[in-house]
């Protein structure tokens, strides 16, 4: 049960100073930052409620820290990133990570299963100029994070909810249950049951509004594992629905490949494929 | 045998038009996407004519039938639950008035248009009766539910097409609905249709349940039937009951679950259960909700929403310090025990109507009937054993 929020009556004799907001980017596609800019109807209210102090995606103006609220997009992939995230943490009051890269390592966490030196030599003409880590890791692997907002990209409404919760000193109303709940709330008919289409919805956290199942597609797991993800049971069902092991490994290894639950699920299937031959 | 009338297929359209003319919003089975759901019926063409279904654990398929039936399918994917008990509703809105220094609160009232349920099967009709008791038949009435339920007109359908997942006969809830609501003694339906699909003779046997039903039947000039028609209707539901292969022994299950609190079966079920919540959200009787408060950025406007929730989510049982049911095994135990045992202690009835939706719509096909049977076997309290 969600706890009811009691809004206290503040003294409004003096308007309080607007909290300073900073938006930071690490290894990412900028899509989550764009979700903030996509809050068209709410953007003016956001700008009234917070002082947008650092947000290079939106403005060149830079206001010095410290910042009451930092939104961090992207994952940690270079030694320089590691240094920078500690600096950001030091000058941030509340630090919220936004999106699959920042909360799970993003699609670039596929490097965690590969040889980065090999990538480097294939992609770059002068790999020797490149200083990179062997892994892509979420922000929380490096510094304390106050709140993680999932999604690839994050959901606009959830982002506003997190901002509203921060501004009103309350807990964000972000469910950690499965996408199935959102399907049912919307009146969707279960896609895998009614059509046999494989769907990651039962192991994936809600937040997107069940976007893909609403169009008859299976869920791709953009919001990462739900709080009680039973990937073993889902893997068995995906097999039952005829999905080859190689594909099962791939569906777990997308934007949230680096989440511990999806990583373990994909490893399990990958190892049985290696041990038991092709399926 | 009460008053029997006969409806021919074209009369069904007349019935729908009559109900709409009387101001009802008609809700019944209709095809949406890959399934039959409950939706608004504006004309007879909204009904799933010639469509059927096959249902198995974790599998539902919409099919084409080789006849022109209107009700030739089992439980729709979505029951009539959301008609009276929507997935999300605003309870109240509040606005802060800075000048006056206080809040203004506005209550939200549900749309008052009365509902006519059309084609509701006995399982779902029983589910509405259960909700009437749970939500509006105790000390504190759920005002929104009661407002939506007011003046409901019910055209029930005696089910001739059980799915493989159905077990209403064993629950005593179908396939033919009881004439009266056992809790209130009131008529269970205004009209009851049994669809007769005999070759060259497609018609409905219509039984009158209330005076209001009789007025509607008279208004559409439904022809008279006789005891042979009634007998044919009974044959159809008797055959439907016999075709059901799943059954729960309601004489023992209450005690079995009480004795199974520490069963090792819960651990085994948890290896299969996805904790996805599907069983609870498709269940026509599950009624758990959560309260969600939303505010704007400035904190000047807020709304309180009531939203369906599920005992399978971790947050459902969260209290200060952590969730009471942190593991899936305790959530499944909670759910099945409530449905088939503690519901009786709480409300004096079972919470399961045998519609089979939790079996069909579980993405991994966990079967409440099979689990009830296995728990019964493991407890040693099966038939023959005295009920505790």
List the defining traits of the structure above.
heterodimer, A: 279 residues, Rossmann fold, five-stranded parallel beta sheet, 12 helices, 5 strands, B: 388 residues, alpha+beta, eight-stranded mixed beta sheet, four-stranded antiparallel beta sheet, 13 helices
**Structural domain tally of chain B:** 2
Query: Distance between the terminal alpha carbons of chain A, to the nearest Å?
Result: 43 Å
CATH architecture title of the largest domain in chain A: 3-Layer(aba) Sandwich
Mean model confidence by pLDDT of chain B: 95
Give the radius of gyration of chain A. 20 Å
| Topology-level CATH name of the largest domain in chain A | Rossmann fold
The helix/strand series of chain A, from N terminus to C terminus, equals EHHEEHEHHEHHHHHHH
Q: Total domains of chain A, how many?
A: 2
How many beta-strand elements of chain A? 5
* Estimated helix fraction of chain B: 25-40%
Q: Encode the helix/strand succession of chain B as letters.
A: EHEEEEHEEEHHEHEEHEHHHHEEEEHHH
Per DSSP, the total helix count of chain B is: 13
Task: Classify the helix fraction of chain A into a percent range.
Answer: 25-40%
What is the mean predicted local confidence, pLDDT of chain A? 92
Structural class of chain A: alpha/beta
Shape of chain B: globular
Low-confidence stretches of chain B: none
- Taken from the alpha-carbon principal axes, the silhouette of chain A is globular
Oligomer: heterodimer
